[in-house]
Amino acid sequence: MQREAEQIAVYSTMAAIFTALVIWIAVSTMDYNDAQRAEIEYCQHVRDGLLPDWKGTYKPGCEGEEEL
Whole-angstrom Cα distance, residue 8 to residue 44? Predict the structure, then answer.
């Protein structure tokens, strides 16, 4: 009986760690995608004259920019 409880505790801990890892990967991927999208939008707005190049990154960072 005690061995079963220990196995359940081990499997529960492993499941919790796996779930936390999956959630962390999903959130960090979304954060990276949001940052990429924001950079593309910034480059497009500077190119179109909607924003000044206040970051000072238009020439070195916006070469070969992608469309949204």
Answer: 54
Domain that holds residue 23: 2-61
| Count of residues making up the chain | 68
What share of the chain has pLDDT > 90, as a percent? 37
Mean predicted lDDT score pLDDT of the chain: 87
Q: How far apart are CA 65 and CA 68, in angstroms?
A: 10
Domain tally for the chain? 1
In the chain, the amino acid numbered 37 is: R
Say if CB 61 and CB 39 are below 8 A apart.
Answer: yes
Q: Looking at the domain assignment, is residue 68 inside a domain?
A: no
List, in order, residues 6 or more apart from 62 with CB less than 8 Å away.
Answer: 42, 43, 46, 47
